[in-house]
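Course assignment 3, question 2. Fill in each field.
Student: A.L.
Task: Predict the tertiary structure for the chain below.
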Amino acid sequence: MKCSEFNIVISGIGGQGVISLANVIEEAALIDGYEVMGSELHGLAMRFGPLECHVRFGKNIYSPLVSRGEADLIFSLELLESLRVAHFANKNTKFFINENQIKPTSVYFGKYEYPTIEEVKRKLMKISDHLFFVDASKKVKNFGEVYSNIYLLGFSRDYLPLSENAILNSIKKLPNFEVNKIVYELGKKDKKDRENESK
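Answer field:
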């Protein structure tokens, strides 16, 4: 059964595959027959600068931007970036966060202290209890860190109202489909393994 509206925010640093992940989800939603709108927001320098994409799909979508507190799902390809987009979340929002840390130059100059994973968790738990932290970059290091986005897509699979056929056909349009498919399946497997461990 199709959903009437689904809102996703994807955050990270330029060069991490934020836009590629947004494109895959948008294409999959189109294949499934949804109306789709999306947008990307970034700072002065797209590469290595903060990057944020919004993806909205459903029956009647009139704006590409997710409103404050209206995100159903948030992907963050970098740890700290999850806090930057936290205002889009509500108590039911699912967070999928790569534990990878890309520290800004201000940290190295001593002007800013980078938070620990526990500090990030404490702040986000005030908003939502649905937090999924995984070191996606480490999980895909044998393939290349650029694949962490598709790994997170697989890890979040059960929470996306999209058909498996649509997702795989969308991934096929990426370069190196076979590697992306392996990484996607790895994300799905790791999520199921974590669920089994918690039982």
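Instructor remarks: Residues 5-198 form a domain with the Pyruvate-ferredoxin Oxidoreductase; domain 3 fold (CATH 3.40.920.10). The chain has a mean pLDDT of 91.
Grade: pending
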